[in-house]
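step: validate -> pass
step: tokenize input -> pass
step: predict -> running
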Amino acid sequence: MLASRLALDVTEAELMRRYDLSRAELQRLLDRIAAEGWIARLPGYGWRFAATVSSPAAQAQAMAFRVVIEPAAIAQPGYWLTQEVIVRLRERQQRVLDGEFEKMTIGEIYHSGCEFHEEIIRGAGNPFFVEALKRVNSIRRLFAYRSFTDRDGMRRHISEHLRLLEILEVRRYAEAAKLMAKHLQRPLVLGLS
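step: predict -> pass
step: emit ->
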């Protein structure tokens, strides 16, 4: 779909032929990607890919959405992260910065970035922020698995994560919200942004 080799609407028979899959294999795959929100069953028969994965602009739109919701979550009245969460996130980010990412798969790097940002947004105490970010992250996963950027950019992003934690720890939330916006507007390092 991302390479424009599939139509927006597809049938199971078409996919089974194209990818030489059994009906059971295809059903497991369709169930998984439907759970991620990438595709939905059409009334009657067939499947339609979500506009968020069929558009070349989807990745930029996902990041634009995050630039709005993540700083807004930090700026919410009552925003707060427990010391335990801050310590856990700091330890994880420091391990990654200290070289763990050299051994990590793209999937592990992506998951680490998602976990960090979901924990940060969870501090707003509003489940709608968390659910919105999880939805965007499930779509972004497609892009993350297609491309991977430089290690220096990864180090910069992880350093920004650590700086953000320092600011959150001393409860300077307005400053943290500005840093988050700046962080998300930088060129992408997929999975860590």
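step: describe -> The mean pLDDT is 86.
step: cleanup -> pass
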